[in-house]
Write a structure and sequence with these properties.
By secondary structure, the protein is an alpha/beta fold. Helix content is 38%, strand content 17%. The protein has helices at 15-18, 21-30, 46-53, 80-86, 110-126, 138-147, 164-172, 189-197, 227-237, 242-256; strands at 5-10, 33-39, 59-63, 92-101, 130-135, 155-157, 175-179, 203-205. The radius of gyration is 17 Å and the shape is globular.
């Protein structure tokens, strides 16, 4: 039997993908990508994301506000109560994406740290795992995870690009590590080493579509069907079969995101 893959993180609600929804779903099916999780980035856009994932049994959602989104209106800033209420929907299987991103923004970023704390508290209140984004902020990300008790719900360090030491600390907190198309890039040598050491039972794969298309599609518009290439690279790096990676990452996905069901398109 051919392997079935899961794209554990994408953004099908983004305009460039939403406009091609039926085609993208057909490509997923043609590449044995059975399920995908669409991560929220703003509260304003979340209703449209939820409506989109309701169109297919094999699509799921996460609710959250991306760390580098500076909300103009106080009403658009997430609260624990708002996130918990939105997470009651059966299609919502996680809180996120959330975390810290010091790469694009400068100055006083305490608001970003407070927002991250809010998401962790909401995840604990809702009993749902976290989808964590961290860029140029690993030390603070891990510190806040520890301070707020993120290990109580667990989750995933999505689109992981940090060091082995950071991976080990996240693993010690019970988190999964998800690799995107970046791991297929020739210059991602350190990341490839991290991909070799993550325990199989904590491994996930993703596209982060429409961004970061893997080789051989680098530079193109990314889509969930391309998660197969991430699995192929992990199989090569770990000296195992694509079938093994597919089976492990699919099993890990449904164990972590317990609210997800193995429905078909």
């Amino acid at each position: 039997m051919n392997p079935v893959f899961v794209d554990s993180h994408c953004h099908l609600d983004f305009p460039e993908l939403a406009a091609q929804f039926e085609q993208i779903m057909a490509h997923m099916a043609g590449n044995r990508v059975g399920h995908a999780l669409c991560a929220g980035v703003t509260l304003e856009r979340f209703p449209a994301l939820l409506e989109l994932v309701r169109r297919r049994d094999n699509l799921f959602a996460a609710v959250g506000v991306h760390p580098d989104t500076e909300t103009a209106e106080p009403a658009c800033e997430p609260t624990v109560a708002t996130l918990v209420e939105l997470a009651r929907d059966p299609k919502v299987v996680a809180i996120g994406e959330t975390g810290l991103d010091y790469y694009r923004l400068q100055g006083d970023l305490e608001w970003q740290r407070e927002r991250f704390r809010t998401h962790i508290r909401a995840a604990r209140a809702a009993g749902k795992p976290l989808i964590i984004h961290t860029r140029a902020a690993a030390e603070d990300t891990l510190r806040l995870m520890r301070e707020e008790g993120a290990e109580a719900v667990g989750g995933v360090m999505h689109c992981f690009t940090e060091s082995q030491a950071v991976a080990e600390e996240a693993l010690a907190l019970g988190f999964h590590i998800s690799f995107s198309g970046i791991v297929t890039f020739k210059n991602a040598k350190a990341l490839k080493e991290v991909a070799r050491m993550v325990p199989q039972e904590r491994l996930l794969i993703e596209t982060d579509a429409p961004y970061l298309a893997p080789v051989p599609h680098r530079g193109e518009l990314n889509e969930p069907a391309y998660v197969v290439h991430v699995a192929e690279e992990l199989a090569r790096l770990r000296d195992t079969s694509v079938e093994t990676i597919a089976a492990a990452t699919t099993e890990n996905f449904f164990r972590l995101f317990a609210g997800a069901r193995r429905g078909e398109a």
